[in-house]
Amino acid sequence: MNETIKLLQNHRTYRQFDTDHQLPNEQLQAILQAARQAPSWMNGQAYSIIVIDDPTIREQLVAWNPGNPHIAASSVFLLFLADLQRTKQVADRKDTPYLIDEGYQPLLIATTDASIALQSASIAAESLGLGTVISGSVRKDSQKIADLLHLPDYVYPVAGLSIGKPIVEMKVKPRLPETAVIHYNGYQPYSTELITAYDKTMTAFGEARETKTWSDKFAGFYSHTPDQGFDQFLKDQHLTK
Q1: In what helix (H) or strand (E) does residue 231 lie, and over which residues does it extend?
Q2: pLDDT tens string for the chain (241 positions)?
Q3: Cβ-contact 52, 72 below 8 angstroms
Q4: Rg (Cα) of the chain, in Å, rounded?
Q5: Which residues form the Nitroreductase domain (predicted)?
Q6: Which residues are 133's β-sheet partners?
Q7: Residue 41 contacts residue 113 (beta carbons within 8 Å)
């Protein structure tokens, strides 16, 4: 097995970092370059990355996300944005309509571009012996973050990436059974017993931060109305109607 596949198959999330570790600039630049070289739809590169190393800004982000202290404790925090402002500027310059609020495809394109860039950054950081954790919770504070970081219209947070030197070793977390996720030549039904078995696997894994089974966690999460605040934020950013 080559080293890249080995790295990917041994991914684990780290949340405790050495607060004194300084990320060398050459490593940061290597991570950013890897992110920028990520594939994107039609080479549109509909994303931007904000490098946040200002302690005051990161402490404010933690104040809004107290369950994610790693945002401040890590060496650097990268915020990945879906960015449709750049193509708005192109449309204005070419004097063409900009109809991205007529459907959801532009949002999917920009979110996917940002997510792929984030994953490339995470892999690059791990290849350097660093630890990472992705924070999707930044979306619940989109308007506050937009105000704090001066985000223009047509831009929204997708997720953040904390990067640092881990101080607590983590085990590789079990994933759903292969037959529940991998399909060949069409979607194939599978027994719900696979999910029940996975609940038992995760319970045995015993991650302290997990207080519910996988099934209970997501049954509960999707039983609530999705975040209406984020919907309104997208409207305010002129991304949806």
Answers
A1: helix 228-236
A2: 799 999 999 999 999 999 999 999 999 999 999 999 999 999 999 999 999 999 999 999 999 999 999 999 999 999 999 999 999 999 999 999 999 999 999 999 999 999 999 999 999 999 999 999 999 999 999 999 999 999 999 999 999 999 999 999 999 999 999 999 999 999 999 999 999 999 999 999 988 888 899 999 999 999 999 989 999 999 999 999 9
A3: no
A4: 19
A5: 9-165
A6: 162
A7: yes
Q: How far apart are the first and last CA of the chain?
A: 49
Task: For residue 162, give the nearest of 61, 230, 82 by alpha carbon.
Answer: 61
Q: What's the Cα-to-Cα distance from 106 to each of 82, 98, 207, rounded to whole Å?
A: 10, 11, 37
Residue ranges and CATH numbers for the domains of the chain are 3-172 (3.40.109.10)
Q: What is the C-alpha separation between 219 and 199, in angstroms, rounded?
A: 13
d(CA 210, CA 135) in angstroms, rounded, equals: 16
Classify residue 41 by its DSSP letter. G
Residue with tokens 């504070």: 141
Is residue 82 within 8 A of residue 230, CB to CB? The reply is: no
Distance CA 232, CA 237 (A): 9
d(CA 208, CA 211): 7
User: In the structure encoding, which two tokens stand for residue 11, read together?
Assistant: 């991914």
Q: How many residues does the chain have?
A: 241
Q: 């997720």: which residue's tokens?
A: 159
